[in-house]
Amino acid sequence: xxxxRVGVIGxxxxxxxxxxxHNAAFKALxxxxxxxxxxxxxxxxxxxxxREPRDHGYIGINVTVPxxxxxxxxxxxxxxxxxxxxxNTVDFRSNLGTNTDADGFINDLRAHDLPIAxxxxxxxxxxxxxxxxxxxxxxxxxxxxxxxxxxxxANALVDHLRASAGIDGISIISLDEAAGWxxxxxxxxxxxxxxxxxxxxxxxxGVPFPVGITVYDMVYRPANTALMRQCVAHDGxxxxxxxxxxxxxxxxxxxxxxxxPPIDLMQSVLQDALEKTKED
Length: 280
Ligand code: NAP
Prior knowledge:
alpha/beta; six-stranded parallel sheet; 11 helices
């Protein structure tokens, strides 16, 4: 019987690939006394629901939709979680809540040998994923501009990062302005292009696509998005979001276990699972 338990809470949570990824890592490292479970907790009983893993001696949990913001009230959020406005990983031993999305994303850029410091990076979107990206990129020394459909949300992102993390200098521009801004990297943090809308791109027709740049698309279903195809058609290099998914999980794994995670294995397990569920 495993004595070290971790897991993910969400509602619904059955679709989560995290149990597969973490349990495969435990198995590969022969960590027989570790187990990762999925726990469904409805939003109206989050506080009560948290007693279940706490009272049963769970070491930590991942937190997914819709609890990432609400859980901040019940844990001690660190600077990253406060800046991003969401907790996706909790360590019950310290009751610390953190967010591993920004580091997972930056680690994946670095794994692809992409320069960040001093680079101009365009972020498409202004939701939770964009907050993580802008936080991580700014901390890593990039010059960041944001394009978002809803201006008030872009303004809220900029104001929040300034107030919570002292991050200044983020510009908000239009897609037309972005075409001539001279970025080396575009990061898609919108949900445009996500299955089943696989033919949609956040870079709409009529705006010239920059030539020879890199696109990082946080969308990982499908593996090759319309935006990625546009990039490659313009002599660019395109990366999908699966590596970020694996790496944000890997950070949580190391936080709980103190063991270096088998990242390549975690990524290939995710890839296989997504291939199996491919419906397009
Ligand atoms: P979110 O908070 O709901 O934000 C969605 C963003 O997409 C907003 O900026 C929204 O713009 C924009 N958007 C949605 N539909 C649009 C449309 N038709 N045209 C233009 N903009 C549109 O979602 P999120 O949590 O930030 O997640 C965003 C994406 O990142 C999702 O696809 C998610 O799966 C992915 N993600 C991937 C990873 C990973 O590990 N790879 C991690 C986190 C998230 P408005 O503000 O105008 O509504």
